[in-house]
Amino acid sequence: MSTFLLAIDQGTTNSKAVLVDADGHVVARGSAPLSKRHPAPGWVEQDPLELWQSVIAAIGACLAEWPGARPIGIGISNQRESVVAWNARSGEPLGPLVSWQCRRTAPACAELRAAGHEPAVLARTGLPIDPMFGAAKIAWLLRHAREQHADLDLDDVRVGTVDAWLLWNATRGARHACDASNAARTQLFDLAAGRWDQGLCDLFEVPLEVLPTVLGSDADFGATRGVPGLPDGTPIRAMLGDSHAALFGHGVDRPGVVKATYGTGSSLMTPLAQVVAPQHGVTTTVAWSLRGTRTYALEGNILVAAASLPWASELLGLGGDPGALADLAESVATSGGVDFVPALIGLGAPYWDSEALGLVAGLSFRSGRAEIARAVMESIALQVADVFDAMQAQVPQPLTHLLADGGPSANAWLMAIQADLIGVPVVPSDAPEASALGAAYMAGLSLGHWARLADIPASRRVHTPIEPRLDPDARERRRASWRAAVARARLAPQP
């Protein structure tokens, strides 16, 4: 009988499941869409029950492609910084899933910064005080739950990142746990100590007892119970945040290489030999915890990347189709001086400016839909270039190339622009499911199916790099125009 691992990759816009064979290759896939709600400007939320149902649907679609497959274990990768609260007795959510994109806690974060707390929080967690991260959102959810349920008993409350919510449902409430990579994104986790921090919990007004147990990324997280399509008792042996899993899926475990995941937002990550104080607008995080050892990483989070594509396509009369937008963008040689700054929910790394506003700059009578479309596409690569530079400013060794994954990385034209803007080769992955593969690889290592990451045949793939062709002077002119547009976006008056 063939050996298979099942990986669940729960993302912002869909849930995916992939079946991975003994050599680490994807042999079956399934996915299911997931909706978002915007109940107020800057607010982004999802339905936790819909999210779990989308995971069940993705698993079913995947296993239907390979009838009779019985996975020896499960790995989970998930959207990070999003948080859920639920009742442990009923399993019912106590509010919406508050998305990583959501800015509803911006006022609370501003108050904490104004009170002078950010340096201490940054030193302990590696993260600036920003609405993206989970702590302030957990506090909001708990206040919301108390308002809606006056008789709520704190002993019945469970709070967690998406991995914890999935685990709770997959085990029918038997386990309330998360992995260290997800815990590190909550702003309640002490990086050096490797545990929840009581002082941070007090600062953000989050009771420590509602939080999940933090385990290694390769821990025994329990076993399935009542999951449609899966036998009860299937072990869950890996959980990682999606960006961390993508880095692991690329087979990267050493400094000097940067991974960029292009998705709704984008995440750049490079491994560190040891934990360092973050500078230059990038953050420090736990990459993963494997066999009792934590690997750290520098990370830069871009809030809006591919999320701008359907929006801009609709705005330009292209029916919300990102492919049509890309085709229009490729029809012109340059943006004609037009820049688009996608600060639609503020700016993330390396600026961390929640007050910045989206902006189109450099318009003239020569500007048309194609130039604007190109500026929108280029904004993805320009933001990545900003974070790449910030990382290079912090690490001693040269960053020799960029590994790319996620939907937009399949666009060779965009990846060529990316190489031109950072001045080093870009290596797109031939496996769009890098996050799912990372979770599967971690689960296989946990189960002893492979002894080392290097033993996985699929992790040793050789890819053809896309070399930069733009001369340095032209690169600097393009990026100077972009920096000027970003400066204007950050000075724009608030409505």
Written description of the protein model:
Helix 8 packs across helix 13. 33% of the residues lie in helices and 21% in strands. It has 2 domains: 246 residues, Nucleotidyltransferase, domain 5, CATH 3.30.420.40; 148 residues, 2-Layer Sandwich (Nucleotidyltransferase, domain 5), CATH 3.30.420. A 6-stranded mixed beta sheet has the order 16-17-15-14-20-21, with helices on both faces. The termini are far apart.
At a glance:
33% of the residues lie in helices and 21% in strands.
Share of β-strand residues: 15-25%
Count of runs of 4 or more consecutive helical residues: 14
Indicate the structural class.
Answer: alpha/beta
Helix content range of the residues, please?
Answer: 25-40%
| CATH topology name of the largest domain | Nucleotidyltransferase, domain 5
Strand line-up across the major sheet: 16-17-15-14-20-21
Domains, number: 2
Give the secondary structure arrangement, pairings included.
Elements: E1 5-10, E2 14-20, E3 26-33, E4 45-46, H1 48-64, E5 73-78, E6 83-87, E7 97-98, H2 106-114, H3 118-125, H4 134-148, E8 157-161, H5 162-170, E9 177-179, H6 180-183, E10 189-190, E11 195-196, H7 198-204, E12 213-215, E13 236-241, H8 242-249, E14 257-262, E15 266-272, E16 283-290, E17 293-302, H9 308-315, H10 322-330, E18 339-341, E19 359-361, H11 369-394, E20 401-405, H12 412-422, E21 426-428, H13 434-446, H14 472-491
Parallel strand pairs: 1-5, 5-13, 9-12, 14-20, 20-21
Antiparallel strand pairs: 1-2, 2-3, 4-7, 6-8, 10-11, 14-15, 15-17, 16-17, 18-19
Helix pairs in contact: 8-13, 10-11, 11-12
